[in-house]
Amino acid sequence: MFGGEAPSIFLQDNHGNRQVTNTGRVMSAACMNSEEFRKYVVERVEELARGTEADYIFLDEPHFSFYVQRGRGYGFKITREWSCTCEACRRLFREEYGYEMPRELNDDVLEFRQRTILSFLEEAAAAVKGADSRKRAAVCLLSTTGAGRVAKEFGKLVGIVDWEGVAAIKAVDMLGTDPYWILLEKMVPVKLLFKGLRWYSRVLDELLEVARRHGKETQAWVQAFKVPAGREGEIVEGVKIAVEKGVDSVFAWPYRAGKLSVLASERADYLWEAIGRAFRELGGRASSPSRGGRRGGLHH
User: Fold this and answer.
1) Which of 223, 239, 258 is the last residue before a domain boundary?
2) Which of 175, 188, 265 is nearest to 221 (CA)?
3) Are 132 and 15 in the same domain?
4) What is the mean pLDDT of residues 69-86?
5) Burial class (CB in 10 A: 0-12, 13-18, 19+), 66
6) Residues 215, 222 contacting (CB under 8 angstroms)
7) Quick check: 22 and 3 in contact, CB under 8 A?
8) Does pLDDT of 293 surpass 50?
9) Residue 69 sits in a domain of what CATH number?
10) Which of 22, 109, 202, 280 is a good FRET partner for 162, with 20 to 30 A between their CA atoms?
């Protein structure tokens, strides 16, 4: 519902609740200020919390959509189009700030968008606890930190300018992120300067720092999609780095390294086996320093 490869039935049936960019482009992502969307999410969260034996309800990458120009393969170039300027967002902004929402990302718009995301997550996480107090709420944030100016600009586009506000939400139990460095290399502005695993490591350091400050569990995701042949070892190294730093749980996405899908890694079977082998070897070392030694996990 926030974008990605999987289709969304909600967006298909609720075209009027999509995010809209500052140029008027309708995006394939739901607006978090849509009352219909919030109601839909809360109902689904409550249904899952009550009707399944899941330990966690996972809220994945809540963010404001932005327009990208796609190149060959999985490459892309980010433009300056940002969202959301739908009718609901413009109305709420006008009520809160006393003037019409501008077409540029000024400080008021940045604040408004971050507050929107925090409000959405507070409501969704509270719904988890309200449905079943034993269930935990996990949030995965896009990696908008750890790479200087580029990360800050990306944070402005997606609406998460810092992680502290999310970590401070009482009903959120786990804070995670997905620093997919091979994907990020596709961003033209950082090709020459970007150091993948070094950036990944810095992102995890900040994740751990913020999460521990607020007493949250931590989760890291490693990229298993569109991994070029010969770079599988980097993904395994990413798993090892997360475990050594004390991240509570480490996941790989997608299932089977995207085999037979548009997301397939070049050697999907080889990569999936390498990740599985790393998880089996490192599983006993995964611990939870932020939760007093409670065992974490490695999952793919």
Assistant:
1) 223
2) 175
3) yes
4) 70
5) buried
6) no
7) no
8) no
9) 3.20.20.80
10) 22
Q: Which residues contact 36 (CB under 8 A, 6 or more apart)?
A: 14, 17
Alpha-carbon distance 116 to 106, whole Å? 16
Contact in structure between 228 and 179 (CB atoms under 8 Å): no
Contact call for residues 137 and 172 (beta carbons, < 8 A): yes
**Beta strands at 297-299 and 174-177: parallel, antiparallel or unpaired:** unpaired
Residue 40 CB neighbour total at 10 angstroms: 18
- Decide if 159 contacts 117 (C-beta within 8 A): yes
| Residue 2: inside a domain | no
Both tokens of residue 16?
């009027």
C-alpha closest to that of 224 among 194, 173, 180: 180
Does residue 252 carry a pLDDT above 70? Answer: yes
CB 30 within 8 A of CB 18: yes
Tokens (6 digits) for 107: 């400080």
Q: Which helix (H) or strand (E) holds 235?
A: helix 232-245
Question: 68 versus 181: which is more confidently predicted?
Answer: 181
User: Which pLDDT band holds residue 59 (cuts at 50, 70, 90)?
Assistant: very high
Question: Does the pTM exceed 0.85?
Answer: yes
Q: Using DSSP, how many helices (H) and how many strands (E) does the chain show?
A: 10, 10
Q: DSSP code of 292?
A: T
**pLDDT at res. 146:** 61
